[in-house]
Design a protein that fits this description.
The chain is mostly helical. Helix content is 55%, strand content 0%. The chain has eight helices and no strands. Helix 2 packs across helix 3. The C terminus is likely disordered.
Length: 159
């Protein structure tokens, strides 16, 4: 499908992705994002997945988890406060997705020491702690084998 996409389609999809990046804490849904891309919701979802390798919702949740990690590392907000600050409306769903992407619960992540990363520039820390989708290639180009998406949490050997 990506081969049939026009440059104009890609520009409109990028515009919608930029809205997710900027407004991740707002209530965003596929119909609203499809409007930004000037596409029907179904076409938008299929095109977004073809262009970026994941659904719009999955991309949004990854952005929310990235921001949540930064807020949890600060340590001055509770997990519930962080959940709502990043735009999630359900603590249970937020915790489940966070655990899926990071490999540990938000509470465990918050409680863990993060001093080692304090000297790292924010742009590098964001890249290195970004949740990585499984089933693709890792940053080194090889296959992703670890069920923990970014390898930041220590694996317990359980799958």
């Amino acid at each position: 499908m990506l081969g049939r996409m026009t440059l104009e389609d890609l520009v409109r999809l990028r515009r919608a992705r930029d809205v997710i990046d900027r407004d991740y804490a707002e209530p965003l849904d596929v119909p609203a994002l499809a409007k930004v891309a000037l596409m029907s919701p179904g076409h938008f979802s299929r095109s977004f997945r073809a262009a970026f390798g994941e659904s719009p919702y999955s991309y949004l949740m990854t952005r929310r988890v990235e921001r949540a990690k930064a807020l949890l590392r600060r340590g001055d907000m509770s997990v519930t406060e962080v959940c709502f600050a990043v735009g999630s409306t359900s603590l249970g769903s937020f915790s489940s997705r966070f655990t899926e992407l990071v490999g540990e619960s938000p509470s465990a992540y918050r409680a863990r020491a993060h001093e080692a990363g304090e000297a790292i520039p924010a742009c590098v820390a964001k890249y290195m702690t970004r949740p990585v989708r499984g089933g693709g290639a890792n940053r080194g180009g090889g296959p992703v084998e670890d069920p923990i998406r970014n390898g930041e949490a220590k694996s317990t050997g359980a799958s």
